[in-house]
Amino acid sequence: MSAAEKRFPSPVVLETINKLSPGGWIRVGWHDASSFSRVRVITPEIYVTRKKTSGYFYGCKKDPDGDMYYLILYNEETDGVPSEGTSIPLGCIEEVLTELQNATPAPPRKIPRKTRKHAAPLKIVEVVEKIVYPI
Q: Which residue, 39, 41, 29, 36, is CA-closest to 71?
């Protein structure tokens, strides 16, 4: 690998991570490990696994037993406490997009078709049946 090749995380990614605030929505592009078996030719389609994970930024935490840092995001809270999420080693991260960078332009508004003058009202009925088995 030459010095000119891309390194992870890039200075841009580190700068973006340093500016993040807990609770901000982000999308992370990263490389995951992959497993394979019974493969005769190992091609990039086999060994490269790019992922995109979205969630709320929790923070960056250091591995207590080493020097590895992890970006932690959560996507579900239970009683106000993050309960489900993802941790990604910083060295695997290719890009971090913030909420503003994720924003896509609103789709063009559709022009409604002509509607019937007297549309039939919609009525939803829920029926609960109890079945009793003799003992």
A: 29
Element (H, E) at 11: helix 11-19
Distance CA 107, CA 114 (A): 21
CATH architecture of the domain formed by 11-102: Roll (2.30)
Q: How far apart (Å, rounded) are the C-alpha atoms in residues 107 and 105?
A: 6
pLDDT tens for 12-60 read 999 999 999 999 999 999 999 999 899 899 999 999 999 999 999 999 9
- Inter-residue contact 56 to 83 (CB < 8 Å): no
Q: Where do the structural domains in the chain lie, given as residue ranges? A: 11-102
Strand (E) positions, the chain?
Answer: 25-32, 49-62, 69-78, 81-89, 93-98
